[in-house]
Amino acid sequence: MWPVDLVVAVVAVLTFRRATPLGAVSALVGWHRRRTVRFLGWADDGAALTSSRAAGYLVMRVGVGLVGVLVLALLAYGLFAVVAAVASWLFDVRLTVLDPDQGDGLTTPEVLAMVPLGAVLLYLDLMGLVGVGVLDRAAAARWLSPSRSERLEAQVESLTVSRAELLAALDAERGRIERDLHDGVQQRAVALGLLVNRARRGVGPDSSGALLLEQAAREAELLVTDLRDVAWRVRPTTLDTHGLAPVLAELVSRSGVPASLEWDSPERLPAAVETTVYYVVAEALTNVAKHSGAQKTKVRIHVGRACRDLSDPTVHVTITDDGVGGAVQRPGHGLAGLSGRVAAAGGTLAVESPAGGPTRIEVTLPCE
């Protein structure tokens, strides 16, 4: 293939500025890729072939091919020399590889003396053939494999997709748990309360069991309330049916610290964005109630005309409180988890919380 490589390499070098290589160049490089994978065990990662890569590879292939031709020529010459020496020793045949003026054929001691030297030269030539294969693999690895930056980009993209898929699966599982709580456990708790109330009506108010049944009825009501709260915190069904605005309003009304919501023109957002915003606000309000010592907090939502206009394709969420401050993102804590969720959605999270307060959490999400 060396002559073909040389001709196509010249064409590839002359057209290396093209975005894509010419058909003949692509065909030859593709053939070499398949050959290298099949016969030399090279692992083809499927890197995109550009004109510059094709030119560099074929130029290197020309050098490898030239070395291979020289090695094979030396091997052929050595084999011819063996045949000539044996013919001269056994049959006194004169071949041009030997001295034409030699009077007699090779003697046995002379032939035996050539054997070690010939074995060494044969070994070196065979190692040269192995070396050509190594050079061939190296040329493919250098020019036809993804670069380090391309590998890193592919890994980052794969990790981002995997994390987003994991969060989507987690949200789906949360929804399933919420449905199981709402349609299963909660219904049984309601049925239990009804049975207790029926038992209360069948027992006289002065009987010894009336007080216990009354307590059981209260506990059943509290159980139903707790189950509804837990199911709602896991993932409110309202988020899918009515959108983010009523869910945030409910979150603010349930907040342990007096909170207010500012959203000038509530609207439906993409489902993934609504889910992320919900968990950001829910976790932030929980952290405020647990750790901040704040007297009030404020949630502000700003949807860039991005969701309708490419000038600002983002959703901005800001949560502020007047607490003691000092909030930091530590591994394993709530803010670190929020940061990971936001990053998986392609957004950013910033925390400003100096000692003494106030604390400000800003989240920016792409509206897509």
List the helices and strands and how they pair.
Layout: H1 2-14, H2 23-40, H3 51-91, H4 108-144, H5 148-201, H6 208-234, H7 238-241, H8 244-254, E1 259-263, H9 271-292, E2 297-303, E3 314-321, H10 334-344, E4 348-352, E5 359-366
Parallel strand pairs: 1-2
Antiparallel strand pairs: 2-3, 3-5, 4-5
Attribute tags:
single chain; 368 residues; alpha+beta; Heat Shock Protein 90; 5-stranded mixed β-sheet; 10 helices; 65% helix
Helix content: 55-70%
Q: What's the structural domain tally?
A: 3
Strand content: 5-15%
Shape: elongated
Biggest β-sheet strands, sense, barrel: 5 strands, mixed
**Secondary-structure element sequence?**
HHHHHHHHEHEEHEE
Distance between the termini: 52 Å
Sheet with most strands: strand arrangement:
1-2-3-5-4
What is the overall pLDDT average? Answer: 82
